[in-house]
Amino acid sequence: MPEHIYFSSESTLAVPFFDVDTLEVAWHGHYVKYFEIARCDLLDQIGHNYNDMRQAGFAWPIVRLEIKYLRPARFGQKLTIRADVVEYESCLKVRYTIFDTLTHTVLTRGFTMQAAVRLDNGEMQLQTPAVWQQAIRSHTRFSDN
User: Fold this and answer.
1) CA distances from 129 to 116, 135, 145 (A)
2) DSSP letter at 133?
3) Domain count, the chain
4) Among 42, 99, 103, 132, which is 20 to 30 Å from 115 by CA?
5) pTM: predicted TM-score of the whole model, two decimal places
């Protein structure tokens, strides 16, 4: 059964020279950075980014990461990174699809899972804080259907 998408955003970038090897292929570790760029854009669009999370008293470390490489990204290639929030109540799970902006060929898929951790005592939360749930639910593009 496909996961429900509660919120989506898209970010774009061109693969920079310093991300590639001598064959002009993006090094596999940079895809985590591309996910991070898309996730930060997504959180900014929701209106509750990492600064807001910290001010609310929580850190949000990655507790799980999965990447499936389908095709290589190359120097100068224009990429679109789609980020979909597929879980927000027990954790923040974001699913990513990286594709070529011009051809829409899918290059990479993956997801990250983050858990809220209280800054005052380091306690991991089993449910995401109410302030985060309220922020995403109140956004005009939130989809509960």
Assistant:
1) 7, 10, 22
2) H
3) 1
4) 99
5) 0.94
